[in-house]
Amino acid sequence: MARITLRQLLDDAAERGYGVPAFNVNNMEQVLGIMAAAGETDSPVILQASRGARSYAGDMMLAKMIEAVELMYPKIPICLHQDHGNDEATCLSAVQHGFTSVMMDGSLKADAKTPASYEYNVDITAKVTHLAHLVGVSVEGELGVLGSLETGMGDAEDGHGAEGKLSHDQLLTDPNQAVDFVRATGVDALAVAMGTSHGAYKFSRKPDGAILALHVVRAIHEKMPGLHLVMHGSSSVPQELQEAFNKYGGKMPQTWGVPLEEILVGIKHGVRKVNSDTDCRLAMAVAIRKVAADKPDEFDPRQFMKPAMAGLKALCKDRFEAFGTAGQASRIEVAPLAVMAKRYAAGSLEQTFSHAAAA
User: Fold this and answer.
1) Rounded Cα–Cα distance for residues 105 and 238 (Å)
2) Domain containing 91: what range?
3) Cα(54)–Cα(136) distance, integer angstroms
4) CA 71 from chain center: how many Å?
5) Given pLDDT bands bounded at 50, 70 and 90, which one contains residue 197?
6) By the 8 A CB rule, do 184 and 139 touch?
7) Is the residue at 355 inside a domain?
8) 275 forms bridges with which residues in the sheet?
9) Which residues contact 230 (CB under 8 A, 6 or more apart)?
10) Domain at 290, CATH number
């Protein structure tokens, strides 16, 4: 099946009330593990590549891996998404390499660590959106800065994240400003700041409303019920994986991620894309550590990576089923980029949000 744009996939998710997990990929084993789960559950899938992943694997290798799994899983719609693009060049080069969706994260300046002004964010996001829509590619924007409501600090992962102390206002997306931002930029999806952060160490305790601000999601959804919201930093960091990691020689301090039940609340209030990277890494790391502990004489990389792929597959299947993504893939009819470009040009897609914002 042809690649699907983020906008088309999230439109379908909104219509049918499900969410779509977005998994970061860096190598063949991750791509194969995720796609095996998608194939077995009949789930559409979002594969994300950060700037770090593109540097690690190389754009050509990533592009060819996705081409390969398109042939292996012809009934599975695949959205290839640029995660946390830092400037126009990053986003447009992703489009050149076959990405059907890009994130322009204008919440930070091009150095990917300095918080940007609202005006800067609007300007650069609108530019990228205009150019991407000309060729039918979707755009995700971000308003507010990812970081911890417990510590007031930004987060850094894979070369991206705010440095230093942030104000409470920076750490929470303003719902009224979100309306203006969407109208001014024309983005297809909006990542919101609500206390989540990248990496494993999100919360020092099980999160409640004081440190995981789901009320922000509810408020934006009330103002723009047609808008597709995105939760970043939403790995759950399962307790059983933490325990297994430490059992086989790891030293992970007790930590808490975003509970699945809270993600499901978000999905009920307009969250359509849920980013998960740490959980995937952790599932694979546990399997690798177990092989190393059980078979200290083993040195064949395949004997480590096969169980790692199985661990990743199991985790992804769980997310597809929990978010309601399972069973959705085979009935989706994918529109080519040229068709999506015509829809953008006609204004039929942007109108969805302008009507919702006015409601």
Assistant:
1) 28
2) 6-346
3) 22
4) 24
5) confident
6) no
7) no
8) 22
9) 140, 189, 190, 191, 192, 271, 272, 273, 274, 275
10) 3.20.20.70
Taking the C-alpha atoms of residue 79 and residue 246, their distance in angstroms, rounded to an integer, is 34
Q: What is the pLDDT of residue 158?
A: 66
**Which residue reads 């992970």 in tokens?**
252
Q: Is residue 268 part of a domain?
A: yes
CB 130 within 8 A of CB 192: no
Counting every residue, how long is the chain? 359
Phi, psi angle pair for 189, to nearest 5°: -150, 155
105 is catalytic: no
Q: Report if residue 352 sits inside a domain.
A: no
Radius of gyration, CA atoms only, the chain = 19
Residue with tokens 């085979």: 330
- Nearest one of 110, 125, 223, 146 to 177, comparing CA atoms: 223
Supply φ then ψ for residue 49, to 5 degrees.
Answer: -130, 125
**DSSP assignment of 39-74:** HHHT--EEEEE-HHHHHHH-HHHHHHHHHHHHHH-T
Residue 86 within a domain: yes
Q: Which of 11, 12, 83, 158 is an active site residue?
A: 83
Question: How many domains are contained in the chain?
Answer: 1
Taking 60 as the threshold, does the pLDDT of residue 354 lie above it?
Answer: no
From the list 61, 67, 82, 8, the residue with the least C-alpha distance to 35 is 67
How many whole angstroms separate alpha carbon 294 and alpha carbon 299?
12
State the DSSP H helix or E strand holding residue 208, giving kind and residue range, or none if neither: none
Q: pLDDT per residue over 216-230, tens digit each?
A: 999 999 999 999 999
Q: What is the DSSP letter of 297?
A: T
